[in-house]
Here is the input.
Amino acid sequence: MWHLGEDGNVLEAVPGESVPVEYRTAGPNCDHCGTRRRRKDTFLVKHIETGEVRQVGSTCLHDFLGIDPHMLVSRYTWIKQLVSVFAEYSGDGCGSGWEPSTGLGHFVNTTAAFVSVFGYRSSTKCREEGYGSPTGGDVFNLITGDHKRYRSFFEGRDKQRERYEDALDEDDTCALASATLCWLGTLDKRPDAELNDYLHNLRTAASMGFVVDRSANLLASAVVAFRREHEIAIERAARKQRKPSEYVGEVGKRFDIEVEIAHEDAWEGHYGMTYFYKFYGPKDQVFVWFGSSTLGRWAKNKDNPNLNPVWERPEIGDKVWIRGTAKRHELHTGKGKWAADGPVKQTILNRVVLLNGPPKLKKARKKTKKAKATAQAAAVEA
Here is the structure.
């Protein structure tokens, strides 16, 4: 447990276990030595047979367990960050030293801009995949690091750096950051019984009003958590108004269709960026596309036609014409909050491109022009 004084505690449980609710506000006590002192961290130890839980200070873990606590920590990769916690403590277990920090509002806004370009990576995903760094850590380092670290992160990423710096001041970024902060504020009004450990931790960390290295990953996830909860609420309301989805197209065949962009996301993997899109068809059919690039098209620069073309991207809610291949038909059963909504028929697309407009109308116009030209040529010859 990370003790934040009157704001409460940030809890981190072993996978498969849960922390009793009363420890959300427990003081930095130690049931082993009984000494009351200012502690940043304490640990909960559960007896396997009796289920009894004891709260133990970091310096007492060795005496209480009879083994080196560093060995336990090294066995659980999910909590590698605790190694640094043990390193902080001297003999009195109080910790010392200055640590960099940044304001919560600035951090959330920067995270929103960062996620719009690079997607979101959790610390859990980084540990499972064995590479990369979590979004929270990257954002915190960009804010609190020096220019050398900033240049190092964006080395070889000139286009992404430009997009990131532009996104910092975009209206969409500021709106998402503002809404996320408002959502974090509403957590204070919710009863403890309605909050799981994750939401409790978010509420506790956000109540500090600033971000430190240890809270960066947790608070960065708030942007994604709010956006997901907001989209689920909108999607659930929209689903009640929509018709049941049906499969579209023959697997392996390409087709053109007008769709509404319902959702987009992005994340970085072993082979670069992956972009996820969800569309709705004219009869409420559901389409899903995983691409290696964003949906868009090259267009002339409206401000200065003499400059290079710009990449135009449609926004969520826009209706556009696309061409794609039906990769497979999939019955999506839904997980978590979507499980109660029942299965949904989805058409998984591949090789999706954005069209300028209805292709069939363009073909018809070409045929009409060709027919007129042929008729005019025949009239001249006559």
The chain has three domains: 2-88, 101-237, 245-361. The chain has twelve helices and 13 strands. The radius of gyration is 27 Å.
